[in-house]
Design goal:
Elements (H helix, E strand, L loop, with lengths): L5 H13 L4 H8 L3 H14 L12 H6 L2 E6 L5 E5 L13 H18 L5 E6 L5 E6 L11 H13 L3 E6 L13 H4 L5 H17 L3 E6 L6 H6 L3 H6 L6 E3 L1 E8 L6 E8 L12 H9 L5 E4 L6 E7 L1 H13 L8 E7 L23 E5 L7 E3 L2 H8 L1
Parallel strand pairs: 3-8, 4-5, 5-6, 6-7, 9-10, 10-12
Antiparallel strand pairs: 1-2, 4-13, 8-9, 11-12, 13-14
Amino acid sequence: MTNMSNESIAAIVQSFWLQGKDMIAVADEIGIKPERIRDYLYKLRKKRPELGIPNFSVPPDQRSASMTGYGGMNGDGVEVLRNVLEFPDKKVVEFNKEDWLDICEKQTTLYEKDNPFQRDAIVRIYEDPPVGIFMSSDWHLGHLQCDISGFKRAFKAVCDINKLFILTNGDLSQNFVSHATRHPVFQQAIPPEAQQRLAICMLEDLQSKNKLLGVVASGEHDLRDENIVGESSLKQRFRELKIPVFRNRAFIRLQIGKNKVKCEVPILAIHKSRYGSILNKLHSAAREYQLDIPAHVILTSHRHTPAHSVVSLLDRLHGYTTALSKECNWPVVLGGKAIFIQTGSFQRDDFSYSFWGSDTTGGWPTIAIFYDNPILTDVVTSFNAAKKLLE
């Protein structure tokens, strides 16, 4: 080694280092003791840093897979461990990000195919205007203080009145399997499983009578068991329905007309909005209207505080953009009138505010009547009034 130049030694060391060998293996190849090459390389690295002499240590794979013995000190004063065992068939772990991304993509595709919920839908009603839509929510079937008599009357009215349909906007059943306190669990007339079966039976009955336009499911009650155990029996039954099913939020393009579409109404239905106000019942609807998809009817629920309002929004601009949408494929119709609706509930405990005026079923029934022109929409809070307008 003393007959070799510094550059030659550096080249040999670099060559062995690139092959993954440690300092001990290099010393064996050159034929000297590791201590001598350690001292020599330490001095050479300090005097000639431009040579790039490597700082040797036992490779990590040898260190993790082997039992080792003491092999001296390297140039930085770190102990070097000599291998005394070898495992030639040690499994090498491989993680291919492309393979895992492909699996994620396939799983996402399968989930979307099996997921019963959609975000938007076109609903076609083959009836000429006027047509009525019963905006309902918060049935809370199974609650001890649910107004079952009022619910039966409302259900019968929907089935009996011609050209009256129903859209449900969440909280079909109480469905308290568990809670931080036991009170909500004991405030149930029938078990949660029976509540969900009852809700599905009501939906299937409405569907069979061609009365049901869509179902918005809420995470607070309808899908509560999914948050607890990871799956919901109600979600399983939603897969069997033939009508669109949504999760908390739905955008529906309602098309009305027997032979051709005479009226198209965009409806934005949200069970639990991200906005709210204790002073203004319609604050949620107003904020959602400002920030989301243009809609003629904005329906919010969850709070059990019924209210509605018809807001005029630049009728002349609505006429201009409507003409443009028909003649020039203008993408958005602006202006016109917007209807804000906050639904009530059949739940009649201290939390709920279901009574409104003198109607026997309180403020829960809110019915929108659509004519040839959506601007002429009426909103009534009694089935008798709706029946007269639809005759």
